[in-house]
Design goal:
With 319 residues, chain A is of the alpha/beta class. In chain A, 39% of the residues lie in helices and 24% in strands. Chain A folds into two domains: 2-244, Rossmann fold (3-Layer(aba) Sandwich); 248-318, CBS domain Like, CATH 3.90.1280. Chain A has helices spanning 40-47, 70-75, 92-96, 98-102, 107-120, 137-149, 167-179, 181-184, 195-201, 219-224, 229-234, 239-246, 249-252, 274-284, 303-318, and strands at residues 2-11, 14-24, 29-33, 55-60, 63-64, 77-80, 155-159, 187-192, 204-209, 212-217, 267-269, 288-293, 297-302. The two termini of chain B are 51 Å apart. The chains are: A alpha/beta (319), B alpha/beta (523).
């Protein structure tokens, strides 16, 4: 879907991005992760040509983006900024209608689409005619998301979209983000410096440092087979929690003992991660839970058995 | 106080027509220049946000323009654009440029970078970003600049009357010259009100439009054009010739009022400052001007004085006036001063003034050259029999006369001389004389009659019929009231006069003011 091929950007003598290549599959959610100044934002902005690269090529659907008119290219790519970038002199409705206007949609179509998005993003209709400064940070960010999604572009670029939000608001938005069907159809590239966020939202993660990609892979790959010391150190602080989040019950299925399900225990889907399963124990106040795989296979699991399977999995992955 | 206010009100009512025209002109001048300044300044301000390297030089130049004193800027305009509306508008527009360019630049560079980035990232073109995002968001700052420029322009537009562009300055500067407080206030109060009202209105626009800015941006140019149309350029309509009169001349009985009542002269008139009037006549911007009959520029610019055949300008014959006590103390003084009597006529005085004012020769040299030519010069006797103190007012002609008298006294008597030149105006000079700080100075009969004796209009009408009756009256009255003696007149008459270009006057066969009147009323 998106192919970045040997892209570099030089600001004066500083190489901000140094010959980076990666690919993003359709409907995949790729996270560019790294500390500030690692070149992740520059990389993102080259994909919609806010920054022109010094070298290299980028293809979207096998079309070289540098052979297209930048305005036309950008109208087909959603963009969400950290500080939302809403127009302060436009109402919420007008802000959302910017791209439809550029695409010359008729009024009716824009209105219907806006109403649909507001509902999906849990924004009340009464907000349509207020100005952005009257909204809370979380609401502003949702409007920013609605604005990026309104024309249903296949690609979405997000530059630290939740960076300016407090922790509670952020984790709420994370949940909505994952649940939003609109986003499941999209190819998303998101920049963040927040490891938790990267692991929670990303299908794949590109860990960057000093303008280069250190390692790219699934969260589990990054955790259990780090490419070097930098990759290992980067995840050090929250390693245990990340591991619980990165491993899903599906991954452990073969390592769990074959016990018949207990009719009185609660049932958990095998699609959830270990962290959520542990929460299931805690809140269910039970000795065992039933794990079901694809709604036809069931196993009864105790807390100890789950932990044992998890450690076994870790050993296998490291080997 | 109450009485004073009432008379101001009366004055304004009496002059309501003029006041209305001047106010309209003032508004027109302000907004034509403002409109052009916006047309130039706004794009220029936008341009330097795109080429940031140019922002320093552009803002620097606009800043320098701002620091040029307004009178000087108007003066620079005359050689380039002549007199009247054009140079005034250009000068005003140059003043308005800086706040507009600077605020446009500041406003646009101050737009939140993430908003601009979002606009570009959504696929807006450069122009769409400018018109839909940058300009609307910068508009409050840009409007603040326009507001500053408006207030500056209302103030500076008062000076437009110096170069015949009209406006409320006509009353203000006329009032100052005539020492007429009501006239000053009749110009100054409306000017101040205009500044306050426009400032207030623009401050409302600034607040109102932040959200609904898109409608406001259309209303503003329309409003500017509307206000600009208040000014009708005072071009030569309804009259074959154009006259330029000083504000003082406009308001005096022995000036334009007399021309209208005694001669019935109706000529298209603009008000202009004395400093640029002669040159404007020379450059054919004006045809008739009010000047002084012995001014050196008369010769410099090839102008002729029209004969005042109905005697509306009182005679201003110059003669030394001396304290009686000084005459007693220095017995040789009177006959020495009288040596000059009858020696300098109008054209000689004009010539002498031409040498100092236009050729910039020193008054001493001009005085000596003159005495030598008249064979009156004698070298100083280095006498020590006493010191005679000579006074003079603060203009060229008086300096020359003081120098001539000084050389005569040194050459013909044993007295020494102390000169106290540059004694401001008439009042300062005359007070110095009566307080025994000087012994004599050259004075003019008209000034003695009107400024010192402050004769009643009836007396003035009576005694100004001939130069002799004026002279006799002031001589008699000065002796009686101040014990000051008018010696014999020097010969020239430095009175108000109407003047035209020599060639034009000859072509039209105009020699007197009556000729002028006849020419103007013929079809």
């Amino acid at each position: 879907m998106i192919k970045v091929d040997g892209i570099s950007k030089q600001f004066g003598k500083v190489k901000a991005v140094d010959a980076i290549s990666f690919e993003v599959q359709a409907q995949e959610n790729l996270i560019l992760l790294g500390t500030s100044g690692c070149g992740k934002t520059t990389t993102l902005k080259m994909i919609n040509r806010l920054i022109e690269p010094s070298q290299g090529n980028i293809y979207i659907n096998n079309k070289n983006i540098f052979e297209q008119q930048p305005e036309v290219l950008r109208r087909g790519i959603g963009y969400v900024l950290q500080n939302n970038g809403l127009f302060p002199h436009y109402t919420v409705a007008e802000n959302i209608a910017i791209v439809p206007q550029l695409l010359k949609w008729d009024k009716k179509k824009t209105e219907t689409r806006t109403a649909e998005l507001l509902e999906k993003l849990h924004l009340d209709k009464s907000y349509l005619h207020v100005y952005p400064n009257e909204l809370s940070g979380g609401q502003q960010q949702r409007v920013g998301l609605a604005r990026a999604l309104v024309s249903d572009p296949p690609v979405l670029l997000m530059d630290e979209p939740f960076g300016a939000l407090d922790n509670v608001t952020r984790s709420n938005i994370h949940k909505e983000f994952k649940a939003l069907d609109e986003l499941k159809r999209k190819t998303i590239i998101m920049v963040t410096h927040d490891v938790q966020e990267a692991f929670e939202l990303g299908d794949r993660i590109c860990l960057m440092d000093k303008g280069k990609i250190v390692q790219s892979g699934t969260p589990a790959e990054l955790l259990f087979s780090p490419a070097n010391e930098f990759a290992k150190d980067f995840l050090k602080d929250q390693r245990l929690q990340l591991e619980f989040r990165a491993v899903h019950l599906n991954d452990l299925w073969d390592l769990l003992p074959n016990l018949a399900p207990n009719n009185e225990a609660t049932s958990l889907s095998a699609d959830i991660d270990v962290w959520s399963a542990l929460e299931g124990f805690k809140f269910g106040n039970q000795e065992t839970v039933n794990v079901n795989r694809d709604n036809d296979q069931y196993k009864q699991v105790s807390f100890e058995q789950l932990m044992a399977a998890f450690y076994q999995y870790k050993k296998q992955a490291a080997a | 106080m109450n009485e004073h206010q009432q008379s101001l009100w009366e004055f304004m009512q009496q002059q309501a027509g003029k006041l209305a025209v001047q106010t309209m002109q003032h508004i027109g001048l302000t907004f034509i220049s403002l409109f052009i300044a916006v047309i130039i300044g706004l794009p220029l301000g936008i341009f330097i946000t795109r080429k940031v390297k140019l922002s320093g030089p552009v803002l620097g130049i606009a800043g320098i323009l701002q620091t040029i004193p307004s009178i000087a800027l108007l003066g620079f305009m005359i050689p380039l654009l002549g007199i009247g509306a054009r140079p005034a508008i250009v000068a005003l527009l140059l003043y308005a440029l800086l706040p507009i360019i600077r605020n446009t630049y500041t406003g646009i560079t101050g737009v939140d970078a993430s908003v601009k980035e979002a606009a570009i990232a959504m696929g807006m073109s450069k122009w769409q970003v400018l018109f839909k995002v940058e300009l609307p968001l910068a508009m409050p700052v840009i409007l603040a600049g326009i507001r500053t420029a408006t207030v500056i322009n209302v103030g500076v537009a008062t000076l437009a009357s110096y170069i015949a562009a009209g406006g409320l300055g006509e009353f203000i500067f006329g009032g100052i010259s005539l020492n007429n407080t009501n006239m000053i206030l009749a110009g100054a109060i409306p000017a101040a009100l205009l500044a306050i009202i426009f400032d207030f209105l623009l401050s409302r626009v600034q607040k109102l439009n932040f959200k609904k800015i898109r409608n406001g941006t259309y209303a503003l140019p329309v409003l500017l054009v509307l206000l600009s149309s208040f000014y009708f350029i005072p071009s030569a309509y309804g009259s074959k010739l154009t006259a330029g009169f000083t504000p003082e001349f406009m308001g005096r009985q022995d000036g334009n009022l007399g021309l209208e009542s005694k001669y019935g002269l109706k000529i298209h008139t603009v008000v202009i400052s004395d400093a640029v009037m002669y040159k404007a006549a020379f450059e054919k911007e004006l045809d008739v001007i009010s000047g002084y009959s012995t001014d050196g520029r008369l010769k410099a610019y090839g102008l002729v004085v029209l004969d005042d055949d109905k005697s509306i300008f009182p005679p201003y014959y110059a003669a030394p006036i001396v304290r009686d006590e000084s005459l007693k103390k220095f017995p040789d003084l009177e006959k020495t001063l009288n040596l000059l009597s009858g020696e300098i006529n109008d054209s000689v005085m004009t010539e002498l003034n031409y040498h100092t004012d236009y050729l910039h020769q020193s008054p001493e040299r001009v005085a000596k050259d003159f005495l030598e030519a008249k064979k009156l010069y004698k070298p100083s006797r280095e006498g020590t029999a006493g010191i005679i103190r000579i006074g003079s007012k603060i203009f060229g002609e008086q300096y020359i006369l003081a120098n001539i008298y000084s050389m005569l006294i040194k050459g013909y008597t044993n007295y020494d001389v102390a000169t106290k030149t540059g004694l401001g105006g008439t009042k300062i000079c005359f007070d110095a004389l009566t307080n025994d700080q000087i012994d004599f100075y050259p004075e003019y009969t008209g000034t003695g009659l009107l400024a010192i004796l402050q004769a009643s209009p009836k007396t003035v009408a009576q005694v100004t019929k001939s130069k002799d009756s004026t002279y006799n009256y002031v001589q008699r009255e000065f002796e009686k009231r101040y014990q000051v003696k008018w010696l014999r007149p020097i010969g020239f008459n430095n009175a108000y006069a109407l003047m035209m270009r020599r060639q034009q006057a000859k072509n039209l066969n105009i020699k007197t003011i009556s000729n002028l009147k006849r020419y103007l009323s013929s079809k």
